[in-house]
Amino acid sequence: MAINSGSSSLKFKLYEMPAEKVCVSGIIERIGSPEAQFSINNKTKTLAIKNHEEAIRCLLTELLKQNFIDELNEIVGVGHRVAHGGEFFDRSTIVNKKEFARIEQLGELAPLHNPVNAMGIKVFSEVLPQSIQVAVFDTAFHQTIPSYNYLYPLPYSLYQKYKIRKYGFHGTSHQYVAKRAAEFLKLDFQEANFITCHLGNGASICCIKEGKSFDTSMGFTPTDGVMMGTRSGGIDPMIFPFLEKNLLLDVNKIEHIINKESGLLGISGISNDFRDVQNSARNGNELSKIAIKMFVRKISEYILSYTSELKRIDGIVFTAGIGEHSAYVRQQICEQLTCLNVKLNKQKNDDNDKLISSKNSKVKVLVIPTDEELVIAKDTYKLVHNLVNV
Fold first, then answer.
1. Which of 138, 215, 224, 371 is catalytic?
2. Residues of each annotated binding site for substrate
3. Taking a C-beta distance cutoff of 8 angstroms, is the pair 373, 2 a contact?
4. Which residues are part of a known binding site for ATP?
5. Is 379 noted as a catalytic residue in this protein?
6. What CATH number has the domain spanning 2-137?
7. Which annotated residues bind ATP (predicted)?
8. What's the pTM value of the predicted model, to 2 decimals?
């Protein structure tokens, strides 16, 4: 089973391996809401789900109830997307006590994700004690970023002592969609250059040079970079001591504001869900309109900044919830890239086709659905298979 826990969602797929046959798939969205959406094999129901632990138990109960499995011990391995691996993990790994403790420790750097990821590992370990738990790290793909891109202009001693640096996230997604884009365009991935845009409740942009991550928007934590659902993205760091001094806020409160009260939610005052903000903007809400413009502008800035890193751009790739489904956002972003001579085919963009740029566009623009779960399942199968056959 592949588990992909986001800050407010839990995607899942149960595979028969090594055939890569999907037995069942789905997603639980808006976790923490009294109207969470539980979709399984395209059938959706609404129910209250308080947290990720409740979501996992609900999922396993549903698999048994609908006879996707006869008993829980049929699930041999569970692969978990884990946001932050620090410099400790440069590849997927089987999770034992030592690895689990490290993942929990790294929760300080990814407060919206690692605690949720660790909870998933813990719950699955308890409910499925016979299964092997595997962690697949968002940060692993970004270990190729050169030091002049991952270091911050702070005293170098802070990096040496505390490993304060850019780590990047969504690496599994960025790598997957770039490889699929290279296959579609009949390019050698090891020679291909892409700018990939993973746009969901969490969002990041990645500069991929010759098949390797060269730079990315998220940094020391998943809070840096572009504006997101509830996260601010990159802002002036002196805002933090200002809030502390003038509003008498402690570090925990400031962290809560930056991670859970900012972004689309903070500006619009409506929601962290882009669909809700867009509907509000259509109905004339000015703050929602501003929030969308801010979101688009920041993404465009990153894309433009990465063009200086690449001798050529083989493609700009959109993926994840907003990137795959919002033709409006893709259009708005590409309109900011006129200096690159990027041109969309309106009909193809509206239809969410794979190649949405027009024939006379200098840069190809693609929409590639991400499949982090398949990557997770393949890594999990490989590690479980090797362990069983030792």
1. 138
2. 81
3. yes
4. 11, 198-202, 273-275, 321-325
5. no
6. 3.30.420.40
7. 11, 198-202, 273-275, 321-325
8. 0.84
